[in-house]
Amino acid sequence: MFAGADEYGVDLTIDDADVERLLAVTPDDADAPAALSFSRNVFIPLTTACRYTCTYCTYYDVPGEATLMSLDEVRETVRTGADAGCTEALFTFGDAPDERYTEVHRQLDEWGYDDILDYLAAACEVALDEGLLPHSNPGDLTREEFADLAPLNASMGVMLETTADVAAHSGNRRKTPGQRLNTIRAAGEVGVPFTTGILVGIGETWLDRAESLLAIRALHERYGHVQEVIVQNVVPNERSDYERPSLDTMRRVVAMARVALPEEVSVQVPPNLSAAADLVPCGVDDLGGVSPVTDDYVNPDYEWPALRELADIADEAGVPLRERLPVYERFLPDGDSVRDRDEKPDGAHGAERDREWLREPITDRLSADDVHGRRFRNVARGDGPLSIPR
After folding, report:
1. What's the rounded mean pLDDT across residues 269-275?
2. Which of 27, 168, 293, 367 could form a disulfide with 282 if both were Cys (CB 3.0 to 4.6 A apart)?
3. Rounded to the nearest 5°, which phi and psi values hold at 121?
């Protein structure tokens, strides 16, 4: 059904009637949230290299200009974030960068690493050592690669973007929906709490948006692993002239996402790219990762809002604002010092109850008897260090 799906053996059937129902959704059909959440993070662009050259993206640098952060730089950044009360180390880089960038490959070899994923594992260990929980976005991965990285990550993610075969993904190294769907499926098979999302305004149609959301729902229903779905609008930048979607468009897409997805899956919009206050009533319940110490390196022209601004968004919606961990509460272990309660949170379904989602390096970090472990546990209980002057 979707471009590249056969190549990866992705078997997804989207019911035409479900598509038609979703296309009929309006903002009035979605329920406003009971609360808004966000995570406090540090953004760590491990490398600016990427095998793709998507026309809307400013993140990647061309070969010869791409950089690779040293582990000393990683340690300094995460230490600063931990001191600022962050809980999440957001690692990101382009897909398979060492396949295209000889300098990146040479540097990794000089430092003693087999490839970028081997290096990412080392960087995650640094983050854990310094008191942050890794959340990695390393592009498309296989099941085996997820299995290697899952023990060192509280959660992981990749943007589906769209199930459409759009010109924005064209080029010699074409990104296909089948690749992305295979990655989301592989994360579910391994049991990784997962973030994905759609990108609005890159040439997709309303039909494509509906099918993309239903494809995510189908994979979550199969594995129970999707914790949040980002509805992200494209923004103008130095490499593209894609028009920013209208507020009416975004309100409708957000409402479609809220109606399409199970209640336990959060709908997120980036508050530095979207008119978040106008989208919350359409079903947004999460404002994503926001950093008090680092830039948004994927969208450098768009500054993160201050915590005070997040509180203003929540106040305008008439709902409380709470800080969360990079892994959602329902994926945390039961009956231990992480949550200090025996019951599963509301909304957890069978697939979640029957699995252990977090591996020992992460659970050890969460339950550690140090300042960082206590910070994580406070945030998990809804009693985090968030303090906003009133």
Report:
1. 87
2. 27
3. -60, -40
